[in-house]
Amino acid sequence: MSRPPATRSVVLADDLTLAYPGDDTPAINGVSVRIAPGEILGLIGEAGSGKSTLARAVALQSAPGDGPAPQIRGGRLRVLGHELTSTRGRARDRLALRVGYLPQDGGSSLYPHLTVGENVAEPIFRRDKHFDRTEAGTAVATLVDAVRLPLSVMEKFPHELSRGQRQRIALARSLVLEPELLVADDPTMGVDVLVRGPILHVVAELQHELGFSALIVGHDLRELRTIVDRIAVLHAGLIVGYGSVDEVLANPLHQYVRTLAELQS
Length: 265
What we know:
Number of strands: 10
CATH architecture of the domain at 11-109 and 179-264: 3-Layer(aba) Sandwich
Radius of gyration: 18 Å
Low-confidence stretches: 1-6
Order of helices and strands: EEEHEEHEHHHEHEHEEHH
Largest sheet: 6 strands, mixed
Helix content: 25-40%
Number of helices: 9
Mean pLDDT: 91
């Protein structure tokens, strides 16, 4: 499979191999993908295929429960113009602020002792504790409205919202610093089927309005294909399909992709 070009890439993985500290078995093995400016790339694969590992590496995030971040064991990964193998310390922290991250079941990661409005604003004050509160409140209200929730929810606590509403608030929180790149790890996982489509459409609408690039991990190709420009299909840490949805399904080169194509027919 040809390698993606390096020019004008928001994300560029080139023959990338990722593993976790203490584990010599790669979770991602020789993967090459690219996200262009303003593009939405969908990432799909079975459980254990390495989707979340790749998403966390791109978003510069540790594993759930503050476990270690995946380590680059081979190849290269460039995010927003920075080679991650040589980006450390404060430079890495500054880069992470330019990437919005929505983890799996992001609604459950909201702080239960903070109101919804305080949860959305938290990244602002983590970055700058002296930030103007009126300006922060305006930014929060704008995003709450953008994710199609009434402004009255800002005074509520997370447990007072439905799971789908909490997921939308987590999405708003991931975008409050106006990132150049959004990484959303299966944003509809565990959400009622009637709410999944609207959540993805909100992501697409905000991407169109704000112009960020995005990596969207998903488990349902029927849902993903409505908002992505291209897909990368992962199987056992390897890319087994890469291109537009129609291109990948029309020329399945792996049994898993053939199975996906059969499910779409």
